[in-house]
Input
Amino acid sequence: MSRGAALLLAMLIAALAAVVAVAVAAEQQRWFADVTSRRDQVQAQALALAGVQWARQIMQDDARAGIIDHLGEAWAFPLPRTPLENGSIEGGIEDAQARLNINNLAKDDALGKEERARFSRLFQSRGIAPGALSAIAATLTPARANDDGQKFGNASRAQPLPANLWPVRAAEVAALPGVAARDFPRMLPFVVALPTATVLNVNTAPAEVIAAAFPGLTTDSLAALMAERARKPFATLSDLRSRMPGGVNIPDETTLGTSSSYFLVSVRARQGETRAQARALLRRDGREWPIVVWQTLE
Output
């Protein structure tokens, strides 16, 4: 009887030891997987941030090459997915001044007036409710009337923000009352929030923004202008004027330009099974090393 009990006890101990061994091995595997995942995450994030530094170098080199910015320059070509050891990196640079600047709407001058007109035409062409423009303008500025006597905004609905609280990223306007969830994706590719007043770069703006900037363009004349720009970027506004399709006027040349100071950067990196993405807004002042206005890492 005692021998049977001893044998049973030995078997139980052996079984317990096997369970413990399996549990320890499983825990070690989980620990190793966690360490590997964390290592890959750190490396992927480091790669993405290195991509932002690459973009800063590209923009400084570009400033030394010439004074105009156009889509035929090196910065405008995306970095294709480039294999690295156990991973890859890809990304691109976009001229932020190819978009309409939300914060220009706060300007109570010719630039502000022209930007509101551009926003209105863009929103109309994109099927965005007019209330979206009113909501944005009301948040940035006190209620005021345009040339037709219509109010941009309603002070009772949205109190103006102090200048230091203006949007720093276009995505912030999605939360404003009056901006419908379905409307925001339609405007996002064409708008930006920049920290200073900016002119629109006619060499880099997409066709939708060019159409909003020059209301006299027909479908055919817009296509002709875009083809002419692709053939040879506009060196000056006088050059733009001389090559503008007949019958199309330039509303206000002081609100346009052929060079830019702000650029958006997006870099995606992969290490193992982990992915990271860095986004940044760069400001370039002459040939100085571009500064990072804001940066996100996901």
Notes: Residues 142-157 have pLDDT under 50 and may be disordered. The CA atoms of residues 284 and 290 lie 4 Å apart. The longest strand covers residues 262-271.
